[in-house]
Specification:
By secondary structure, the protein is an alpha+beta fold. It has ten helices and ten strands.
Protein backbone atom coordinates (compact mmCIF):
# COMPACT_ATOMS: atom_id res chain seq x y z
CA UNK A 1 0.00 0.00 0.00
CA UNK A 2 2.84 2.37 0.87
CA UNK A 3 4.57 1.65 -2.41
CA UNK A 4 1.37 2.29 -4.35
CA UNK A 5 0.82 5.60 -2.54
CA UNK A 6 4.39 6.62 -3.23
CA UNK A 7 3.99 5.80 -6.92
CA UNK A 8 0.94 8.02 -7.20
CA UNK A 9 2.98 10.94 -5.87
CA UNK A 10 5.35 10.84 -8.83
CA UNK A 11 5.06 13.35 -11.65
CA UNK A 12 3.94 11.68 -14.88
CA UNK A 13 5.52 12.70 -18.16
CA UNK A 14 3.16 13.97 -20.88
CA UNK A 15 1.85 11.20 -23.16
CA UNK A 16 3.22 13.03 -26.19
CA UNK A 17 4.98 16.20 -27.24
CA UNK A 18 3.70 16.54 -30.80
CA UNK A 19 0.16 16.97 -32.09
CA UNK A 20 -0.87 16.96 -35.74
CA UNK A 21 -3.42 19.20 -37.43
CA UNK A 22 -3.49 17.46 -40.77
CA UNK A 23 0.06 17.72 -42.14
CA UNK A 24 1.01 20.45 -39.64
CA UNK A 25 2.92 19.31 -36.56
CA UNK A 26 2.43 21.31 -33.36
CA UNK A 27 5.48 20.69 -31.21
CA UNK A 28 5.36 21.59 -27.53
CA UNK A 29 9.09 22.29 -27.49
CA UNK A 30 8.84 24.85 -30.29
CA UNK A 31 5.73 26.44 -28.77
CA UNK A 32 7.50 26.89 -25.42
CA UNK A 33 10.47 28.53 -27.14
CA UNK A 34 8.14 30.89 -29.01
CA UNK A 35 6.19 31.80 -25.87
CA UNK A 36 9.45 32.48 -24.04
CA UNK A 37 10.67 34.76 -26.83
CA UNK A 38 7.40 36.73 -26.86
CA UNK A 39 7.48 37.17 -23.08
CA UNK A 40 11.10 38.31 -23.19
CA UNK A 41 10.38 40.87 -25.92
CA UNK A 42 7.28 42.33 -24.26
CA UNK A 43 8.74 42.53 -20.75
CA UNK A 44 12.18 43.53 -22.04
CA UNK A 45 10.71 46.44 -24.00
CA UNK A 46 8.85 47.65 -20.92
CA UNK A 47 12.05 47.57 -18.88
CA UNK A 48 13.99 49.31 -21.64
CA UNK A 49 11.46 52.16 -21.88
CA UNK A 50 11.48 52.56 -18.09
CA UNK A 51 15.26 53.02 -18.21
CA UNK A 52 14.96 55.81 -20.79
CA UNK A 53 15.02 53.93 -24.09
CA UNK A 54 12.64 54.09 -27.02
CA UNK A 55 9.59 51.84 -27.24
CA UNK A 56 9.97 49.09 -29.85
CA UNK A 57 13.75 48.93 -29.55
CA UNK A 58 13.76 45.43 -28.05
CA UNK A 59 11.69 44.03 -30.91
CA UNK A 60 13.98 45.64 -33.47
CA UNK A 61 17.06 44.15 -31.84
CA UNK A 62 15.35 40.79 -31.30
CA UNK A 63 15.02 40.50 -35.07
CA UNK A 64 18.81 40.16 -35.06
CA UNK A 65 19.40 38.47 -31.72
CA UNK A 66 16.80 35.66 -31.90
CA UNK A 67 17.95 34.06 -35.19
CA UNK A 68 21.59 34.38 -34.13
CA UNK A 69 20.74 32.86 -30.75
CA UNK A 70 18.87 29.88 -32.23
CA UNK A 71 21.76 29.14 -34.58
CA UNK A 72 24.30 29.55 -31.79
CA UNK A 73 22.33 27.34 -29.42
CA UNK A 74 22.09 24.57 -31.99
CA UNK A 75 25.76 24.85 -32.97
CA UNK A 76 26.83 24.53 -29.34
CA UNK A 77 24.62 21.48 -28.85
CA UNK A 78 25.91 19.77 -31.98
CA UNK A 79 29.56 20.57 -31.25
CA UNK A 80 29.37 19.24 -27.69
CA UNK A 81 27.45 16.13 -28.75
CA UNK A 82 28.97 15.56 -32.19
CA UNK A 83 29.26 11.72 -31.91
CA UNK A 84 25.45 11.50 -31.89
CA UNK A 85 25.31 13.13 -35.31
CA UNK A 86 28.67 12.44 -36.94
CA UNK A 87 30.01 9.42 -35.07
CA UNK A 88 29.56 5.78 -35.93
CA UNK A 89 25.89 5.10 -36.57
CA UNK A 90 25.06 8.80 -36.37
CA UNK A 91 22.73 10.71 -38.66
CA UNK A 92 24.30 14.04 -39.77
CA UNK A 93 21.03 15.45 -41.08
CA UNK A 94 19.55 15.16 -37.60
CA UNK A 95 21.84 18.04 -36.62
CA UNK A 96 19.43 20.31 -38.50
CA UNK A 97 16.31 19.04 -36.71
CA UNK A 98 16.19 21.70 -34.02
CA UNK A 99 12.51 20.92 -33.37
CA UNK A 100 13.56 17.63 -31.78
CA UNK A 101 15.25 19.52 -28.95
CA UNK A 102 18.85 20.40 -28.33
CA UNK A 103 19.69 24.09 -27.85
CA UNK A 104 22.79 24.89 -25.80
CA UNK A 105 22.20 28.03 -23.73
CA UNK A 106 25.87 29.01 -23.91
CA UNK A 107 25.85 29.11 -27.68
CA UNK A 108 22.49 30.88 -27.71
CA UNK A 109 23.71 33.64 -25.39
CA UNK A 110 27.08 34.01 -27.16
CA UNK A 111 25.82 34.21 -30.74
CA UNK A 112 22.61 35.92 -29.66
CA UNK A 113 24.84 38.55 -28.11
CA UNK A 114 26.51 39.06 -31.48
CA UNK A 115 23.10 39.62 -33.06
CA UNK A 116 22.15 42.04 -30.26
CA UNK A 117 25.42 43.91 -30.79
CA UNK A 118 24.59 44.35 -34.46
CA UNK A 119 21.11 45.59 -33.60
CA UNK A 120 22.42 47.99 -30.96
CA UNK A 121 25.00 49.37 -33.38
CA UNK A 122 22.26 50.05 -35.90
CA UNK A 123 20.19 51.88 -33.28
CA UNK A 124 23.15 53.71 -31.76
CA UNK A 125 22.57 52.44 -28.20
CA UNK A 126 25.00 50.83 -25.73
CA UNK A 127 24.91 47.04 -25.68
CA UNK A 128 25.69 46.73 -21.91
CA UNK A 129 22.67 48.86 -21.00
CA UNK A 130 20.47 46.86 -23.33
CA UNK A 131 21.72 43.63 -21.75
CA UNK A 132 20.79 44.88 -18.28
CA UNK A 133 17.25 45.64 -19.42
CA UNK A 134 16.63 42.26 -21.01
CA UNK A 135 18.55 40.04 -18.54
CA UNK A 136 15.58 39.07 -16.30
CA UNK A 137 13.24 38.59 -19.31
CA UNK A 138 15.80 36.36 -21.05
CA UNK A 139 16.15 34.16 -17.98
CA UNK A 140 12.38 33.93 -17.61
CA UNK A 141 12.23 32.86 -21.26
CA UNK A 142 14.74 30.12 -20.46
CA UNK A 143 12.49 28.87 -17.65
CA UNK A 144 9.52 28.75 -20.02
CA UNK A 145 11.60 26.92 -22.61
CA UNK A 146 12.46 24.22 -20.09
CA UNK A 147 8.80 23.18 -20.09
CA UNK A 148 9.44 21.98 -23.64
CA UNK A 149 12.02 19.54 -22.29
CA UNK A 150 9.28 18.08 -20.09
CA UNK A 151 7.17 17.27 -23.15
CA UNK A 152 10.21 15.82 -24.95
CA UNK A 153 11.15 13.57 -21.99
CA UNK A 154 14.70 14.93 -21.93
CA UNK A 155 17.22 16.65 -19.65
CA UNK A 156 16.28 14.59 -16.62
CA UNK A 157 18.55 13.29 -13.86
CA UNK A 158 19.42 10.03 -12.21
CA UNK A 159 16.84 7.63 -10.80
CA UNK A 160 15.27 8.58 -7.50
CA UNK A 161 12.53 7.71 -5.00
CA UNK A 162 11.68 11.29 -3.95
CA UNK A 163 7.93 12.03 -4.12
CA UNK A 164 8.43 14.57 -6.90
CA UNK A 165 10.30 12.09 -9.06
CA UNK A 166 9.45 12.14 -12.77
CA UNK A 167 8.05 9.05 -14.52
CA UNK A 168 9.70 8.41 -17.88
CA UNK A 169 7.55 6.30 -20.24
CA UNK A 170 8.32 4.29 -23.32
CA UNK A 171 6.94 5.92 -26.45
CA UNK A 172 5.95 4.34 -29.74
CA UNK A 173 6.16 6.20 -33.05
CA UNK A 174 4.37 5.57 -36.35
CA UNK A 175 7.24 3.38 -37.55
CA UNK A 176 6.61 0.99 -34.65
CA UNK A 177 9.81 1.93 -32.80
CA UNK A 178 9.60 1.95 -29.01
CA UNK A 179 11.78 3.92 -26.60
CA UNK A 180 11.75 6.81 -24.10
CA UNK A 181 13.61 9.21 -26.42
CA UNK A 182 11.19 9.18 -29.35
CA UNK A 183 10.10 12.82 -29.54
CA UNK A 184 7.40 12.08 -32.12
CA UNK A 185 6.08 9.04 -30.27
CA UNK A 186 3.12 8.46 -27.99
CA UNK A 187 3.36 6.97 -24.50
CA UNK A 188 2.77 3.25 -24.13
CA UNK A 189 2.01 3.67 -20.42
CA UNK A 190 5.04 1.55 -19.45
CA UNK A 191 7.28 3.32 -16.93
CA UNK A 192 10.97 3.01 -17.80
CA UNK A 193 12.35 4.87 -14.79
CA UNK A 194 11.54 7.45 -12.10
CA UNK A 195 14.13 10.22 -12.24
CA UNK A 196 15.00 13.67 -10.90
CA UNK A 197 13.21 16.31 -13.03
CA UNK A 198 16.37 18.38 -13.46
CA UNK A 199 14.76 20.53 -16.16
CA UNK A 200 12.19 21.53 -13.50
CA UNK A 201 14.96 22.28 -11.00
CA UNK A 202 16.60 24.53 -13.55
CA UNK A 203 13.33 26.30 -14.37
CA UNK A 204 12.61 26.95 -10.68
CA UNK A 205 16.17 28.19 -10.11
CA UNK A 206 15.78 30.52 -13.07
CA UNK A 207 12.58 32.00 -11.61
CA UNK A 208 14.30 32.56 -8.26
CA UNK A 209 17.17 34.34 -9.98
CA UNK A 210 14.74 36.45 -12.05
CA UNK A 211 13.10 37.72 -8.84
CA UNK A 212 16.51 38.38 -7.28
CA UNK A 213 17.70 40.32 -10.34
CA UNK A 214 14.60 42.54 -10.32
CA UNK A 215 15.02 43.29 -6.61
CA UNK A 216 18.74 44.03 -6.99
CA UNK A 217 18.11 46.24 -9.99
CA UNK A 218 15.49 48.28 -8.17
CA UNK A 219 17.47 48.64 -4.97
CA UNK A 220 20.95 49.30 -6.35
CA UNK A 221 20.20 50.65 -9.87
CA UNK A 222 22.64 48.32 -11.59
CA UNK A 223 23.98 49.40 -14.97
CA UNK A 224 26.76 49.10 -17.56
CA UNK A 225 26.17 45.40 -18.12
CA UNK A 226 26.60 44.33 -14.52
CA UNK A 227 23.02 43.06 -14.13
CA UNK A 228 23.45 40.90 -17.21
CA UNK A 229 26.69 39.56 -15.76
CA UNK A 230 24.92 38.77 -12.49
CA UNK A 231 22.29 36.84 -14.45
CA UNK A 232 25.00 34.82 -16.17
CA UNK A 233 26.90 34.12 -12.94
CA UNK A 234 23.81 33.10 -10.96
CA UNK A 235 22.50 30.89 -13.74
CA UNK A 236 25.90 29.18 -14.00
CA UNK A 237 25.89 28.34 -10.29
CA UNK A 238 22.56 26.57 -10.57
CA UNK A 239 23.44 24.89 -13.85
CA UNK A 240 26.72 23.56 -12.41
CA UNK A 241 24.91 21.89 -9.51
CA UNK A 242 22.12 20.53 -11.69
CA UNK A 243 24.58 19.09 -14.21
CA UNK A 244 26.00 16.93 -11.40
CA UNK A 245 22.57 15.29 -11.05
CA UNK A 246 22.10 14.43 -14.71
CA UNK A 247 22.88 11.03 -16.18
CA UNK A 248 21.61 11.50 -19.74
CA UNK A 249 24.02 11.26 -22.63
CA UNK A 250 26.57 14.09 -22.80
CA UNK A 251 30.17 14.75 -23.80
CA UNK A 252 32.76 14.61 -21.01
CA UNK A 253 36.17 16.09 -20.29
CA UNK A 254 38.24 14.03 -17.83
CA UNK A 255 35.07 12.28 -16.75
CA UNK A 256 33.20 15.55 -16.11
CA UNK A 257 30.29 16.76 -18.23
CA UNK A 258 31.38 19.50 -20.61
CA UNK A 259 28.57 21.77 -19.46
CA UNK A 260 30.00 21.68 -15.93
CA UNK A 261 33.31 23.03 -17.25
CA UNK A 262 31.52 25.68 -19.27
CA UNK A 263 29.41 26.73 -16.28
CA UNK A 264 32.46 27.14 -14.05
CA UNK A 265 34.48 29.12 -16.60
CA UNK A 266 31.64 31.42 -17.62
CA UNK A 267 30.67 32.00 -13.97
CA UNK A 268 34.18 33.17 -13.07
CA UNK A 269 34.32 35.46 -16.11
CA UNK A 270 30.93 36.99 -15.22
CA UNK A 271 31.96 37.64 -11.61
CA UNK A 272 35.16 39.35 -12.78
CA UNK A 273 33.09 41.60 -15.05
CA UNK A 274 30.78 42.56 -12.17
CA UNK A 275 33.82 43.58 -10.10
CA UNK A 276 35.70 45.57 -12.74
CA UNK A 277 32.81 47.12 -14.72
CA UNK A 278 31.82 50.75 -14.30
CA UNK A 279 29.47 51.34 -11.39
CA UNK A 280 26.15 53.17 -11.45
CA UNK A 281 23.65 53.27 -14.30
CA UNK A 282 23.64 54.94 -17.69
CA UNK A 283 22.09 58.39 -18.12
CA UNK A 284 18.67 57.96 -19.77
CA UNK A 285 19.81 60.29 -22.57
CA UNK A 286 22.37 57.68 -23.62
CA UNK A 287 19.65 55.10 -24.27
CA UNK A 288 17.54 56.93 -26.83
CA UNK A 289 18.09 55.59 -30.34
CA UNK A 290 20.35 57.91 -32.31
CA UNK A 291 20.33 56.12 -35.64
CA UNK A 292 16.76 55.60 -36.83
CA UNK A 293 16.31 52.74 -39.28
CA UNK A 294 14.61 54.88 -41.97
CA UNK A 295 16.17 57.46 -44.31
CA UNK A 296 17.29 60.77 -42.85
CA UNK A 297 14.66 63.54 -42.96
CA UNK A 298 15.02 66.16 -45.68
CA UNK A 299 17.52 68.83 -44.72
CA UNK A 300 19.36 66.56 -42.27
CA UNK A 301 22.64 64.94 -43.14
CA UNK A 302 22.51 61.16 -42.96
CA UNK A 303 24.76 59.41 -40.46
CA UNK A 304 24.25 62.04 -37.76
CA UNK A 305 24.13 60.86 -34.22
CA UNK A 306 21.25 63.01 -33.00
CA UNK A 307 18.42 65.16 -34.27
CA UNK A 308 18.26 68.79 -33.22
CA UNK A 309 15.48 71.12 -32.19
CA UNK A 310 15.38 74.77 -31.17
CA UNK A 311 15.18 75.89 -27.58
CA UNK A 312 13.22 78.95 -26.45
CA UNK A 313 16.10 81.24 -27.43
CA UNK A 314 16.23 79.86 -30.95
CA UNK A 315 19.56 78.02 -30.45
CA UNK A 316 19.91 74.52 -31.83
CA UNK A 317 19.85 71.94 -29.05
CA UNK A 318 20.48 68.22 -29.60
CA UNK A 319 17.19 66.35 -29.24
CA UNK A 320 18.98 63.65 -27.27
CA UNK A 321 20.08 66.28 -24.75
CA UNK A 322 16.54 67.67 -24.52
CA UNK A 323 15.24 64.11 -23.94
CA UNK A 324 17.97 63.54 -21.38
CA UNK A 325 16.98 66.66 -19.47
CA UNK A 326 13.33 65.63 -19.50
CA UNK A 327 14.20 62.11 -18.40
CA UNK A 328 16.46 63.41 -15.66
CA UNK A 329 13.59 65.49 -14.24
CA UNK A 330 11.38 62.40 -14.19
CA UNK A 331 13.98 59.97 -12.89
CA UNK A 332 14.51 58.85 -9.34
CA UNK A 333 17.85 60.55 -8.99
CA UNK A 334 19.12 61.93 -5.70
CA UNK A 335 17.64 65.37 -6.43
CA UNK A 336 14.07 64.28 -5.72
CA UNK A 337 14.42 61.05 -3.81
CA UNK A 338 11.70 59.44 -5.93
CA UNK A 339 11.81 55.96 -7.47
CA UNK A 340 10.92 55.31 -11.09
CA UNK A 341 9.23 52.10 -12.19
CA UNK A 342 11.84 49.88 -13.81
CA UNK A 343 9.34 47.94 -15.87
CA UNK A 344 9.67 44.84 -13.73
Amino acid sequence: MTSHTQLLAYIPSPPQGVWYLGPVALRAYALCIIVGIVVAIVWGDRRWVARGGDKGTVLDIAIWAVPFGLVGGRLYHVMTDWPTYFGEGGHPLDALKVWQGGLGIWGAVALGGVGAWIGCRRRGIPLPAFGDAVAPPILLAQAIGRVGNYFNQELYGRETTVPWGLEIFDRRNDAGQVGPNLVDGTSTGDVVAVVHPTFLYEALWAVVVVVALVVIDRRFRIGHGRLFALYVAAYCVGRFVIELMRTDHASHIAGIRVNSFTSAIVCVAAIVYVVVARKGREDPAELASKRPAGPAPEGQASGGTADTESDDAGAAVPAGDRAGEDAARESDGPHDGGRKDDGS
